[in-house]
Amino acid sequence: VPGKAASIFKVVAQAKGNVDMIVQNVSTIETGRTDISFTLPKEDAARVIQALQDARDELEFEAIHHDDQIGKIALVGGGMRTNVGVSATFFKALSDNGINLEMISTSEIRISVVTRADQVADAVRVIHSAFGLDADDEAVIYAGTGR
After folding, report:
1. Which of 21, 53, 72, 112 holds its CA 20 to 30 A away from the CA of 102?
2. What's the pTM value of the predicted model, to 2 decimals?
3. Could you give the 3-state DSSP secondary structure of residue 41?
């Protein structure tokens, strides 16, 4: 229904929930329902859940599922737009090491994934290795204002 996401995230914003990742998909079952998943800091969760529950009649949602045992990993870089295979390398490294992904969100310069909290350190390690970022060489970082 057009406007439902706006209504949901208005309630979240009024509860001062700082959303940093959103994934929406239409249910594969012929219910006409949509699933919306989002992440926010742990300290915002109870307040946001209560605000959503308080607005349940207005929002007309079926259920809220809360999971505070997740972690987010992101691969970020402007070169992702011009280098073929970045996504394939990223996902293969995680898969080869048995790291399951629960959410995926992408942009032109970022891949963000959610996995179990106890797998985050391993995920970061294997991604670093897959992209050669775990070498003993000194990294050189160039930065500027973009002006």
Report:
1. 53
2. 0.80
3. coil
